[in-house]
Structure formats: structure tokens, C-alpha cells
């Protein structure tokens, strides 16, 4: 925002232009966190969209009070909880445009409003279950099989890309009684492709939660460690066994945005015989030229060869050097001098060699792009003030008229509305909520699991063959969920016991040497799911906002783990 850009998500008109007509037709409230750093601005845009579509909707923006966000050297944003969303809904919102709100809290706020919960009361099992429900719904298409599209995982029933493009989103069915008992149901629309199953939800349940027995949100400390998943047909999974591990935290997480210097990215390619050798020469020359221009700047650059060693070190140096090689540089510098030195050195390859360089480009300006370094701190809950910005239907229509007058009617919104109307007309109504303890209509009895494959002492297993995984990040920490395929579930404890001593070695090549001399590895078992959550830190080159890696979020770490072999004792 300080640089002149909008603080809300620029896709807000597209999303709301598509969704609001359908929501208005069905009386459905829409809650989003697209307000990001500027929920007030996002709410004004949402109101203008509603006005141009002639929809009588009340829009409420919700976020931390602006005065609390200002600091001399940057901005701060506290992650609000479900109470902020519930407050906006109780103020009459049809559309809630939230700023920094914890992802599960968006859903917990809806449940709290619908069931008239007092979120200031001590945290309960119901709040924890609603948090788990929100955590799974937050995963979106990943919960319905999107993250299971892998040659070792889901085999699509038709063309993989076509099925992936048509996946249905998950939704939840929950009651006050069910949530109070620690349970609910996750479904997907019947007939939509994809997979909603015990294995897809087990993988997502552990995503970015670190310790499953103590998942901290602004609303509750939830305990997922005893969770159970029961398939109730091809489109429904019952979740049970969620508990509350502790009261609502007294402190909230606050992000602190500050100047992180300048980032520069550049790439160039070589083709044919000796392409990797030429890339090696090019890297050496670039580093020399950089240090001549800006002493020491080359030490701040990470070089890699995408498709060869950008995600992990290669162990097969005997691969023939006659294909093609992409050389990538990414650096973070304290000022523009280092960024410019890299840009000029990369340009020098085109006029100075090695032979056959092509496809060179810079990721932006020769002077680099600004980096926002995100720090974290805890702040007392009572020190954070939530603010609402309410725009009723009259203001929405006025905002829409003003936008149309200044910029002309937005043809995109007409197209979005037409797309939504067509989708709404083609959507079959889903059955009513499942009665307590009953399976949905047309539920199927699951087949008996296949007998476990034999396991013998000294047997070598590749984890790809017996497990699936999902990786996520929190700062310098990577979180990898490891889940056994059903036939291997009886052997999971033995496999994990054989794997644990090797985990530090598996991830050692990614250790941030500047941050620590050793890795911290923790393993959290999920007894009811034949699964474990594995956390490793520090391995993400400073965290996603400042990382110089091709994979700043560490998503490829799931495949790093799965490619590991273990020897059974």
C-alpha cells in the first residue's frame, strides 16, 4: 500500500462478480479474507460490485483498527479470530470482507453466528471441532483429491487434467450436538469428479498443524490427535474424536512487515553438448562480474539449474550432458546495488559467452523488486481492537453508480454474473443435513481392507510404495504429513520406527546454516490414522517472504521424504 498498490486482493471483483449473484439468489452469506491489508478498501470494492449488479446487499469489512497498524519502520497486522467474523454477521452483513483472520476462524465465525455461540466463554469441544472442520474446508480442492493427483497416488478415471479441472469443492454438514461431541461430516457434490476419502482427509488434516495435539488458533487450542475418519459413501466422510486441548489463547499472532531489501531473479538457458558445463562457466563468470561491480554481492545469490538441482542436490553426476540446462540466479540484497550487479552480469553472458546462451530474462527491474520481510510477535488479545466498516444497500448502489459513471459499466461483471447464473441452473440440490448418527442417502458399506503385504527383516522399502505425504510451511519450519496407504497401515509403526533415525539426514542438505548448526526434528504420531506429522527446522532459507529458493514454501519436501528408502530391522 505504501508503494501505491491496493492492500486488498486485486481478484476481489472477479471472485465477487462471479459468486454474489448466486449467493443473493439463494440467500447465502459470503465470507472471505480478501481484504488482506485493507479490509476497508476491499469492502468498498465489494459494495461497488454489488451495486453494479443491482444486488441489495450489506457489505461489512472487518479488521484490526487502522491506528494500531502503523509503525515507523513498517506495518503490523494481527490475526483475528472467529469473534470478528461473528460480530460482522450479527451486524447484518450479507458479505464479510475480512482482513487478517486465521483461516479456520472464517468458518468458526459462521458456525458461532448460526448456533449463537458466545465465543468469549471458555473454549469447548464444539469450538475445537468447528476449527477442525474449518481447517479441512480451508484445504479446498486438495481435500477432494487435488493434492492426490500423483502417479503413485490417485489414478484419474479419465484424462488427469480434465478430471483435475472439474473437481468439486468440499462442504460440511454439522449440528450443535455433533460438534459438541467432537464430530461433523465433510462432503463433496455428488457426481463431481475427484476423491473425498479417508486418505485425502488424513493428508489434509495434518497440513501445517505442527503438533496435532495442540493446534493453536485465535479461538481454541484444538486436539486432532484422536481424530477418526469414517467413509460414508463416495461423497462423504464423518470426522470424530476432535477435542479441546486448552482455553482460548490470551495472545494473538501479529505479523510485522518491514523492509527486507531488494530481490533480483534472472535465468538463462543452454542447449546441446556440454550444456551443464557451459552453465557452470556462466555461473562462475556472473559471480566474478558481480563482485567486481559490488564487492561481496555474489555471496547473497543462490544459483540452481531447474530440472536438475533446483529442488534438491543431484546424486547422479554421471547423467549425460547433452540435453538442455536452465540456469537460475536468485539473490536478496540490502539495496539496489547488488540487484543491479546481478542484472548487468546476466546481460554480460549474452555478449561475452559461453556459447549458445538463450532465453535470458530478468524477473523485473534491473534494480530489483522490494522484499517485505515478515516477522512475528505475540500481542495481548485486549490490545487488539477490531473495527467494522459497514456499507448498506444504499451505499452499495451509490458506489456501483459512481464506479459506472467514472469508468463505465464493467462488462466483466456482466460476464461473471452470466457464468454464475449458468452454473446455478446446472447445479442439482444436495440432500438435507444428515440426521445424527445416520449415514447419508445411498451410503455404501466399505469393502474389507486388503490384507497387509508381507514384511520381513532386512526388507528395503521406498516410502513412495507404502505412504503418501503433504508438506507445508510455517516460517523456517516445514511440516510433512506421512500417511500409510490402507494395505500398509498395520505396518506403519514399524516403518516409522525404521525411518525416524534417518530423518535428520534426509533433510540435512536443506538446513539453513546461518540459522542453526543442527536440525530440530519432531515426530507426532496419529494412532487412529496410521499417520504421523513430521516437523523439521530451520530448512526454508529464512521463510517464504525472503527465501531465494525455487520452492520457498517447501512443497517438494513431501517428495523428498517419499523418495527415501528404509530397511526393516
Task: Explain what the structure shows.
The structure is a single chain. This protein is of the alpha+beta class and 569 residues long. It folds into four domains: 1-120 and 392-435, no CATH class; 123-247, no CATH class; 255-373, Alpha-Beta Plaits (2-Layer Sandwich), CATH 3.30.70; 460-567, no CATH class. The chain is built from 16 helices and 24 strands. The protein has helices at 12-26, 39-52, 82-90, 103-115, 125-138, 160-165, 176-180, 198-205, 275-293, 336-352, 393-407, 411-425, 463-466, 492-499, 503-507, 557-562, and strands at 30-32, 59-64, 70-71, 74-78, 95-98, 170-173, 184-188, 215-216, 221-223, 228-231, 236-240, 243-246, 251-271, 301-304, 324-333, 358-362, 369-380, 386-391, 460-462, 467-474, 477-484, 520-526, 531-537, 565-567. The strands form six sheets. Strands 3, 4, 13, 14, 15, 16 and 17 form a seven-stranded antiparallel sheet that branches. The protein has a four-stranded mixed sheet with strand order 1-5-2-18, with helices on both faces. A four-stranded antiparallel sheet has the order 6-7-11-10, with helices on one face. Helix 2 (39-52) crosses helix 11 (393-407). The longest helix is centred in the middle third of the chain and has 19 residues, at 275-293. The chain is globular, with a radius of gyration of 26 Å. Pfam families: AtuA, AtuA_ferredoxin. Residues 4-62, 76-387 form the Acyclic terpene utilisation N-terminal domain. InterPro entries: AtuA-like_ferredoxin_dom (IPR056362), AtuA_N (IPR010839). Residues 462-566 form the AtuA-like ferredoxin-fold domain.
Amino acid at each position: 500500500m505504501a508503494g501505491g498498490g491496493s492492500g486488498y486482493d486485486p481478484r476481489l471483483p472477479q471472485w465477487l462478480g462471479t459468486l454474489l449473484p448466486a449467493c443473493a439468489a439463494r440467500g447465502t452469506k459470503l465470507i472471505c479474507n480478501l481484504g488482506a491489508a485493507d479490509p476497508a478498501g476491499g469492502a468498498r470494492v465489494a459494495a461497488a460490485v454489488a451495486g453494479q449488479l443491482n444486488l441489495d446487499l450489506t457489505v461489512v469489512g472487518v479488521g484490526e483498527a487502522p491506528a494500531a497498524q502503523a509503525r515507523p519502520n513498517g506495518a503490523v497486522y494481527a490475526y483475528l479470530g472467529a469473534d470478528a467474523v461473528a460480530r460482522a454477521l450479527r451486524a447484518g452483513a450479507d458479505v464479510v470482507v475480512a482482513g487478517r483472520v486465521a483461516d479456520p476462524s472464517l468458518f468458526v465465525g459462521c458456525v458461532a453466528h448460526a448456533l449463537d455461540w458466545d465465543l468469549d466463554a471458555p473454549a469447548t469441544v464444539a469450538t475445537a471441532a468447528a476449527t477442525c472442520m474449518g481447517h479441512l474446508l480451508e484445504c479446498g480442492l486438495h481435500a477432494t483429491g487435488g493434492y492426490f493427483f500423483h502417479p503413485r497416488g490417485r489414478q484419474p478415471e479419465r484424462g488427469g487434467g480434465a478430471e483435475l479441472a472439474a473437481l468439486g469443492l468440499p462442504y460440511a454438514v454439522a449440528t450443535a450436538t455433533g460438534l459438541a461431541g467432537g464430530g461433523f461430516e465433510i462432503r463433496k457434490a455428488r457426481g463431481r469428479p475427484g476423491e473425498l476419502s479417508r486418505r485425502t482427509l488424513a493428508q489434509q488434516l495434518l497440513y501445517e498443524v505442527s503438533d496435532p495435539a495442540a493446534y493453536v488458533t485465535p479461538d481454541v487450542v484444538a486436539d486432532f490427535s484422536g481424530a477418526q475418519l469414517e467413509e460414508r459413501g463416495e461423497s462423504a466422510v464423518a470426522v470424530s474424536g476432535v477435542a479441546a486441548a486448552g482455553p482460548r489463547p490470551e495472545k494473538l499472532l501479529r505479523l510485522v512487515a518491514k523492509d527486507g531489501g531488494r530481490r533480483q531473479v534472472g535465468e538463462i538457458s543452454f542447449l546441446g553438448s556440454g550444456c551443464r558445463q557451459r552453465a557452470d562457466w556462466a555461473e562462475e563468470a556472473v559471480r566474478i562480474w558481480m563482485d567486481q561491480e559490488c564487492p561481496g554481492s555474489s555471496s547473497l545469490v543462490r544459483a540452481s539449474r531447474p530440472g536438475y538441482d533446483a529442488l534438491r542436490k543431484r546424486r547422479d553426476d554421471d547423467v549425460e550432458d547433452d540435453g538442455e540446462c536452465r540456469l537460475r540466479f536468485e539473490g536478496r540484497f540490502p539495496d539496489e546495488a547488488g540487484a543491479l550487479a546481478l542484472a548487468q552480469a546476466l546481460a554480460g553472458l549474452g555478449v561475452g559467452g559461453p556459447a549458445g546462451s538463450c532465453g535470458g530474462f530478468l524477473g523485473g527491474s534491473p534494480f530489483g523488486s522490494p522484499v517485505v520481510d515478515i516477522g512475528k510477535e505475540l500481542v495481548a488479545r485486549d490490545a487488539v481492537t477490531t473495527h467494522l466498516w459497514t456499507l448498506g444497500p444504499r451505499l452499495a448502489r451509490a458506489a456501483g453508480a459512481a464506479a459506472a459513471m467514472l469508468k463505465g459499466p464493467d462488462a466483466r461483471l456482466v460476464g461473471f454474473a452470466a457464468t454464475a447464473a449458468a452454473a446455478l441452473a446446472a447445479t442439482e440440490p444436495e440432500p438435507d443435513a444428515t440426521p445424527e448418527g445416520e449415514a447419508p442417502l445411498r451410503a455404501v458399506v466399505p469393502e474389507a481392507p486388503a490384507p497387509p503385504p508381507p514384511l520381513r527383516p532386512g526388507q528395503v522399502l521406498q516410502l513412495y510404495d507404502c505412504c503418501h505425504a503433504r508438506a507445508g510451511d510455517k516460517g523456517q519450519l516445514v511440516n510433512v504429513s506421512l500417511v500409510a496407504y490402507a494395505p500398509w497401515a498395520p505396518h506403519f509403526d514399524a516403518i516409522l520406527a525404521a525411518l525416524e533415525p534417518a530423518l535428520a539426514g534426509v533433510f540435512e542438505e536443506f538446513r539453513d546454516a546461518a540459522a542453526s548448526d543442527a536440525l530440530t526434528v519432531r515426530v507426532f504420531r496419529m494412532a487412529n490414522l496410521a499417520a504421523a506429522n513430521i516437523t523439521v527446522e530451520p530448512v526454508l532459507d529464512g521463510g517464504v517472504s525472503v527465501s531465494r529458493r525455487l520452492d520457498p514454501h517447501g512443497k517438494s519436501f513431501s517428495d523428498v521424504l517419499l523418495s527415501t528408502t528404509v530397511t526393516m530391522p
